[in-house]
């Protein structure tokens, strides 16, 4: 039995670690100490689970997608309904956990980065809940794509700062958040949104998100009296997928597939599939952690593209890189067009509008379910709802 | 280690500290308000002179051990872990981040990172 924990320096195999400015070493060590203290603290864990239940609406249902399963004519497909979480995605799980940690550490000001806006909304929500100042960094391109979420954050009392540098997407937002942090270390807690960044962030985000997989495991055993054959989840930074996968990692017969953004082509700059080695995916260091990155021949970080702001990022969480390297999890791609088609298929067969991020997972399920037998079971993590994407999809479909 | 700063190290410090008087010392100029859609104002200007005057007296007492040949992170004699936040964090040539740390109680230059 492998417990899939990183070593004390935050490495899973050769991936992970802590590559940060010296200025941040002290707050990162403070965060590490604080996290390991609460990790085994029953009071903290009880408060966390109570808030997830009473504030976020957990447990989320495990829903049998009967019409989708029948239409595809293969595996029985279940959807883990993270879209029904408060704020509309799984991001609230991590935001609740980290805001409790920030309060324990006595921090009064919270900063965050966001791509699709879901993590920004979740952060703004928990800051409102606890009356803490909140600044969210977001690339201007993402602000344009996700204007509804920008308004939601403002409504919740957060200050949204648009980043006009670089590609104006998530990487640039993270750079600005790090810059803010190094100049405000005493007062500020950086609430990172994915299983990325320097140790201990990939670990603590994974731990807070693992509630998804623990619930799914219990629910499928109640419904089917056995474990699923396949788990599918989209992978941007990788928080929803690692949250689903982690409690099943020791179940050797459960196949796991992470789905990256295949974008509009295989050339560098046309996609955000970090495990696509032919498409520029190589091992490197970005924003505090060693993992697979999209980079050119000179090692410069490449621009990325995805229809989905939440998957549009040049790196992937280090635990995913490790799981890929040992062959425990498979990684596939879904293109923009496939995700857009899946967005419509799920809307029309199940009455559920998925987030464009989650649509990548659905797209892969649509590909592989027909090849599976009707007796087989697949769980797809429906990481978020698609209300935020409706305007963008409307524009694309009417072009 | 206990050495004077090289010419390049002094130049990095001077160019970084000069941004204090323009208000660009935290990367200002590329942030847009989510409320108004307009470019956010730069940070409040500060006088760099008290820091510039310290440069000639600075000594490098340790260097980052990351083994990256292109890493230029050093600590000065006033560095004290946990007490030295950055006053400058700006993007320089090649997209690198220049960070200048100051001892928050003594107001003395404490470290410089080029990463």
Question: Can you tell me about this structure?
Answer:
The complex is a heterodimer of chains A (399) and B (115). Chain A has 15 helices and 14 strands. Chain A has a 6-stranded mixed beta sheet with strand order 3-4-14-9-10-13, sandwiched between helices. Chain A has a 4-stranded parallel beta sheet with strand order 7-6-5-8, sandwiched between helices. In chain A, strand 9, helix 11 and strand 10 form a beta-alpha-beta unit. In chain A, helix 2 crosses helix 4 and helix 10 crosses helix 11. The longest helix of chain A has 18 residues. The radius of gyration of chain A is 19 Å and the shape is globular. Chain A starts with 10 loop residues before the first strand and ends with a helix. The model of chain A has no long low-confidence stretch (mean pLDDT 95). With 115 residues, chain B is an alpha+beta fold. Chain B has one domain. Helices cover 17% and strands 28% of the residues of chain B. Chain B has a 5-stranded antiparallel beta sheet, with helices on one face. The two termini of chain B are 21 Å apart. Chains A and B meet through helix 1, helix 7, strand 7 and helix 8 of A and strand 1, strand 4 and strand 5 of B.
Structure summary:
The complex is a heterodimer of chains A (399) and B (115). By secondary structure, chain A is of the alpha/beta class.
Question: How are the SSEs placed, and which strands pair?
Answer:
The complex is a heterodimer of chains A (399) and B (115).
Chain A: E1 11-12, E2 15-16, H1 22-39, H2 42-54, E3 62-64, H3 66-72, E4 76-81, H4 91-104, E5 109-114, H5 118-130, E6 133-139, H6 140-145, H7 147-155, E7 159-163, H8 170-183, E8 188-190, H9 201-209, H10 211-224, E9 230-234, H11 239-245, E10 255-263, E11 281-286, E12 289-294, H12 318-325, E13 330-335, H13 336-350, H14 356-368, E14 377-382, H15 390-397
Parallel strand pairs in A: 4-14, 5-6, 5-8, 6-7, 9-10, 9-14, 10-13
Antiparallel strand pairs in A: 1-2, 3-4, 11-12
Helix pairs in contact in A: 2-4, 3-13, 4-5, 4-9, 5-7, 9-11, 10-11, 13-14
Chain B: H1 7-22, E1 31-33, H2 49-52, E2 60-63, E3 74-76, E4 86-92, E5 96-103, E6 108-114
Antiparallel strand pairs in B: 2-3, 3-6, 4-5, 5-6
